Fold:
Amino acid sequence: MDFSGWEKLSLVDYDDNITTTLFMAGCNFRCPFCHNRDLVLHPEHAPTIPWSEIMEYLKKRQGVLDAVCVSGGEPTLMPDLEEKLRDIKSLGFLVKLDSNGSNPLLLRKLVSMSLVDYVAMDIKNSKKRYAETIGFKTYDLSKIEESVKFLMESGIGYEFRTTMMEEFHDEEAIKEIGEWIAGAKRYFLQLYIESEHVIQTGHTPIPKEKAERFLEILKPYVPNAKLRGYE
Structure:
């Protein structure tokens, strides 16, 4: 399966690493605020980038690039993801995986095989508001909970992150998230940015003052929690 999007140079996707970011088309969630609408809703119409072209680019930039970020959509839906990560790691790059956490079995396998160096997992909302936040009426959270538990116990580098909107996130939800992921290494509350590419427009960003209140609510549970995008 081919990737459908490619940001050849990024300085923000993986800490201080010089990164190239690949986007897979297709997702099992329908988050109304997702900014990759076309990749999620119409993967059959997404462009395809030959893997040979990506590998040629990576080979030429060994020693220049530090890492490859694999994103989406939801990359764990890619049937040959393991094979592609093997190719990337064979060139000596770090690999960051962006995931919604819905495939804990594959996540465990990739980590155990040292094919992933860092995982950024979305925590969409508190457990009781999760379904509505990902675009469903109901949703079985057991796989999400398994992925959270695994990352916190695995020893691998990871972060959790929540993109916040007035329509979905309030103080109660933030407190419940804190209780859920208490002790997490890294957690970011992210600024929502409206664009014409989101699945559903009309969502309202959380203002910085309110985001800072949320951060104070989180601190007893996740001392290293930070804001992202509010600079």
About this structure: Residues 175 and 217 are 6 Å apart (CA to CA). The mean pLDDT is 96. The first strand starts at residue 5 and ends at 10. The beta strands are 5-10, 19-23, 67-71, 94-99, 118-122, 157-164, 187-191, 226-228.
